[in-house]
Amino acid sequence: MKRGLAKLDRRCVLALALLLAPSLMERVAAAAEARIAAEAAAQHANEQATVCGLVAGTKYADRSRGKPTFLDFGKPHPGETFKVVIWGADRAKFKEAPEVAYHQKDVCVSGRIQLYRGAPEIVVRDPAQLTLEDRPRPKGGEG
Fold first, then answer.
1. Which of 2, 58, 88, 92 lies 20 to 30 Å from 139, alpha-carbon distance?
2. Beta strands 82-86 and 119-123: pairing type?
3. Tens digit of each residue's pLDDT (9 = 90 or more) over 77-93
4. What is the pTM of this model?
């Protein structure tokens, strides 16, 4: 009798899991597709996310330790609202210099948002973390 109940319990758990799986998968997919504006990135520190915005300024600091490349979102440094850091060791993975390829472009970056000295950033190790957005920019330079 115990064996029969255990088998029935397993079937119930399996049936319940199959019923809930699509709902769970939809929520996971929605979370993966959720995009955060660069201005809101600080509120999502320590989260995996996709942050999108205009890269307003760039700099390859080839004389600094680690030879970082910075992509500044919103406004150029020092007024950026969010920053991407690409360390020199990872630059060779890019077909074009990142400071040229992404400058003045709408970009989305995926990764873990961290705070460095209170400012939000994502460290990019692979070009696949960055995507160009095809969103048309308003005329007159605004937007």
1. 58
2. parallel
3. 999 999 999 999 999 99
4. 0.73
